[in-house]
Design brief:
By secondary structure, the chain is of the alpha/beta class. The protein contains eleven helices and 16 strands. Bound molecules: zinc ion (2 copies).
């Protein structure tokens, strides 16, 4: 079968690789129909993390089930599913507690399409077939009427944006909220969408990037153009920090009101960044860090989408055919989706 493969830093190829096979009763095989490019994918290809061997690309997808182990319940052949980008068992203590990103059975960062992070090759979604080791935990069926390309990013970036706001708006219903975007913008834009869907009375979006600001405004946010060098214009009870720069992080912390919530959806590579811990202590800034838990969150995010309250396709800026994936994958776009018919 064919698999889009990163063969070395900056170089992609369609490679012929062996078809995966079912190896246990709890497994499934899927055929990806639509694949979205995650905010991390261009970093992976650029060699931001050391590349020791060729690796399969793509981890956000909607797929069709093509084979099922005898022990799998609740799924059927031909069904369309959203696939958790993280591999998780659904049965260990952490999975059952909702912390499926940290499944006890697997190495940390066990994700599709991210072999450089975990050291394990689970396959990538830009392939003709992918093995799913724990089908019941990792696959969530979607209604036949939903368009795969519209939901391609749900398995990761959409639910990542959602989880940055959902628990905090549940605790402080109707709160105004600030999203600080200082890296790749799709997670913060999905956070805007989710915050509006969940009843925030006003969502503000701070960024230096005019294209992101315009899209955020179209989604219903109030734009704040800034390079983060000046003080935030005010403070908010909930602040989402999504980016990669110390300046953006500092802006987000300063924009959080006393006893307010600072929620990070950021990975900061490189040397440690100093934090204003004295101010954070004095003002009682409540900080939340950590990855999203894909398998655990998929059912509740899909309920919002099925109800028409979240429309992830509104963030998609480019859709290409499967055959064009190799050329399109490294090119800039807020949200790229690759699709095929069947
Ligand atoms: Zn991702
Ligand atoms: Zn587990």
């Amino acid at each position: 079968m064919r698999q889009l493969t990163c063969v070395e830093k900056g170089k992609l190829e369609w490679r012929e690789v062996p078809e995966p096979r079912l190896a246990a009763d709890c497994e499934a095989l899927i055929r990806p129909l639509a694949v979205a490019r995650c905010d991390i994918d261009r970093f992976l290809v650029s060699g931001a993390f050391p590349i020791s061997a060729p690796f399969a690309l793509g981890h956000e997808s909607v797929a069709v089930v093509t084979a099922l182990g005898d022990g799998v319940r609740g799924l059927s052949l031909g069904q369309r599913v959203v696939v958790s980008f993280q591999v998780s068992c659904g049965a260990c203590g952490r999975c059952r507690a909702g912390f499926s990103a940290l499944c006890e059975k697997l190495p940390v960062l066990s994700d599709y399409g991210m072999q450089p992070l975990s050291g394990v090759e689970y396959g990538g979604m830009l392939s003709d077939a992918v093995r799913v080791p724990f089908a019941e935990a990792m696959l969530q069926p979607i209604s036949a009427g939903l368009e795969p390309a519209a939901l391609a990013s749900v398995s990761d970036n959409v639910l990542d944006g959602y989880r940055t706001v959902a628990p905090h708006l549940a605790a402080r219903p109707g709160s105004e909220l600030l999203v600080v975007s200082h890296g790749t913008p799709s997670i913060p834009l999905y956070a805007v969408q989710a915050a509006i869907a969940l009843g925030s009375s006003a969502v503000h979006f701070a960024s230096p990037d005019r294209e992101s600001l315009a899209l955020a405004e179209k989604l219903g946010a109030r734009p704040i153009e800034t390079d983060f060098s000046a003080k935030p214009p005010r403070t908010w009870p909930i602040v989402v920090d999504a980016g990669v720069t110390p300046a953006g992080l500092g802006f987000a912390l300063r924009a959080t009101e006393p006893e307010g919530v600072y929620q990070s959806a950021s990975f900061y590579p490189g040397p440690p960044i100093p934090l204003p811990l004295g101010r954070m202590y004095t003002l009682g800034i409540r900080c939340f860090f950590g990855r999203c838990h894909a398998a655990a969150l998929l059912p509740e995010v899909l309920r919002l989408i099925e109800a028409g309250r979240l429309r992830p396709e509104a963030v998609t800026t480019r859709v290409v055919d499967w055959e064009d994936a190799l050329d399109a994958w490294p090119e800039p776009a807020i949200k790229l989706v690759v699709r095929r018919s069947q």
